[in-house]
Design goal:
Length: 227
């Protein structure tokens, strides 16, 4: 069985909606994540390494850790994230998001960062610094390496982006794939009329994202087989 490899932030984390107990209660069941739906459609084994709050460096390292396991005809989908995100080291890696400044839900995480010497001022300064276009060029270089590696082993690579968008990422007309899905198929907040506050994809949005990737993948494979 071929493998479907998923890398990214919370929009690719298969546990994101399952862990939202308010949403599960509102729905009355646990919804399927787009990566699960896509793996089922393809008949592939799912290897989902998405991690909520991940920075692009975390995503890149996640790929590096398992790249030797990726095989011929496997499919790799990378959800690149906002370049303002970063991580710091102490006894482990700590993720740092701009939301740490104001989001009450991240209060405990913010306290952990303060305990290892990362103040709110440091976070603000780093977020400003990371708005520099050089961080997007850095992302381009990581993509070039991953793309070359996937080509060398004949694995199919697809990229899409949360906030950060580059021309090698999948788009829908004049919109990035992320914006297309969110604007047309909504978030959990939209779906529940704000009874459950969550900016992640609704059930319909997960279904649509899986459908788009499936059609993209099967279209590429059909063209490849015709050559």
């Amino acid at each position: 069985m071929n493998n479907l490899w998923i890398f990214g932030c919370s929009y690719s984390d298969v546990s994101q909606t399952k862990d939202n107990l308010e949403y599960v209660k509102w729905k009355g069941y646990i919804t399927k994540h787009w990566s699960e739906i896509l793996a089922d459609k393809l008949g592939f084994k799912l290897n989902n390494l998405g991690y909520r709050g991940a920075s692009n460096l975390h995503i890149f390292e996640s790929f590096c850790k398992v790249c030797h396991k990726i095989e011929n005809n496997d499919i790799v989908i990378i959800n690149w994230t906002d370049t303002s995100r970063f991580r710091v080291a102490d006894d482990r890696w700590y993720r740092v998001l701009s939301h740490h400044i104001s989001d009450i839900k991240l209060k405990e995480e913010k306290k952990e960062l303060e305990d290892i010497g990362i103040s709110e001022i440091t976070i603000k300064e780093m977020v400003i610094n990371r708005s520099n276009k050089l961080y997007e060029e850095e992302l381009d270089n990581w993509y070039n390496l991953i793309n070359s590696y996937c080509n060398s082993i004949d694995a199919l690579l697809l990229s899409w982006g949360f906030i950060t968008y580059r021309n090698y990422m999948v788009n829908m007309g004049n919109f990035s794939l992320f914006d297309y899905i969110k604007n047309n198929f909504g978030t959990i907040s939209n779906e529940t009329n704000n009874e459950v506050l969550d900016s992640h994809f609704s059930e319909n949005a997960n279904d649509e994202l899986a459908r788009i990737f499936y059609e993209k993948i099967t279209g590429i494979e059909t063209k490849k087989n015709l050559i």
